[in-house]
Specification:
The chain is globular. It has 13 helices and 19 strands. The protein is α/β, with parallel strands linked by helices.
Length: 467
Amino acid sequence: MLYHIWTVGCQMNKADSERIATALERLGLRPTSDKENADVIVLNSCSVRRSAEDRVLSKLGSLKPLKRARPEMIVALAGCMVGNDIASLREKLPFVDVFLKPQEGDELLRLVIERRSCSPPTFLSAVKDRSGDFEQADGIADCVEEDAQSTSDKLVSEPTRWVPIIYGCDNFCSYCIVPFRRGRERSRSPEDILAEIREMVQRGATEVTLLGQNVDSYGHDLPDKPDLADLLQLVDDVDGLYRVRFLTSHPKDMSDKLIDAVARLPKVCEYINLPVQSGDDTILKAMKRRYTVEEYRNLVRRIRTRIPDVSLSTDLIVGFPGETREQFESSYRLLEEIRFDAVHVAAYSPRPGTAAARLPDDVAAEEKKDRLQRVEELQERVATENNAALLGKIVQVLVEGKNKGKWQGRTRTNKLVFFQSDDNWLGRLALVAIEKTGPWSLQGSETGETRVERAQTPLSIGREGEG
């Protein structure tokens, strides 16, 4: 049997898709990029914006002829579009066999087993603790193809992997649907997280990104109250791992202890995603973000003082209900002042069920488009200037794969780098001399290999802008 997974949305969705894929492969299924030949198709959805939902619905519509021609095909809708009203979804999408809420997968796996007519009867269920992982129950070997178990054991991992450490969110920002779809915050135990990371490393992973809707809240609901800084220390000690990242942070929850951990720990990368969402205090209050612009500025100053070579990215919403032109200009000036390495900007769109959806969507569509375009043009200029400083420098790149004949990977500060080489660089750390820069990527030539994370030599290959 073959499976095909299509994923849209955040990194948490990507991690959920990886877990579903792993569970399916343990049942003997194999991946395919051709959905027309797939026996199982999973669409992992996002509902943060209406445009994301529209993409999913369009994709689902394209599957109706396939399902009609092959009724035995299993079609599953997963992710944040699957809320509590599954009955309504079944009525609207009768050709979908399974609806999976975020972090769920047992119903899909059970259906796959039933379709394969396993004997004696067996089942596969989701673990009911905080981990949210999928595990095999007793007797599952009866449903696994003869050579599938050994194949799964030898599965080669992608060099970079996503590891959820906390599910859900307790912030209830007025524009966000996530707490209603993914629930309240639930932290995984450090033991579960470390066991998963060690298994990933055994399968070839050399970098992990710790994920959470608000990753800085990690551990507050666990018995010993470990925090993210404590967890980073544990992950930093994992043998065979080269790099550690984390996202997404909330400005109100980023502690000095966490900043010090990023500065101190050798494998933790100097990259922080810190969504600001607006540069105006009135709009931030309406968004229920619980910090002020000046508090955000002070946080950035503390980060850059402690980690001078840090790379910062942010998220921004333009056209939030009530946002005046003057308030937008405040956001624009903040971006000019801080000079982020990346800005993810979106025009506001109301999400039914959120507090902001009850506010008048009173910024015209053309005005939103204009504001979004101005931010994109500003960021292109800033990123061009930031990256130009790396011309002629040697940077350390963890190679993730090939793209159009070139190896591609990222620096510790999350800069995308391309270089050509006949050697196999997958999952390795390459030293690359930067010969061409642009706003979104860098081009260069490899000059050697290193596994040194923060070199103590004059050539600081672990940090951009030196060497």
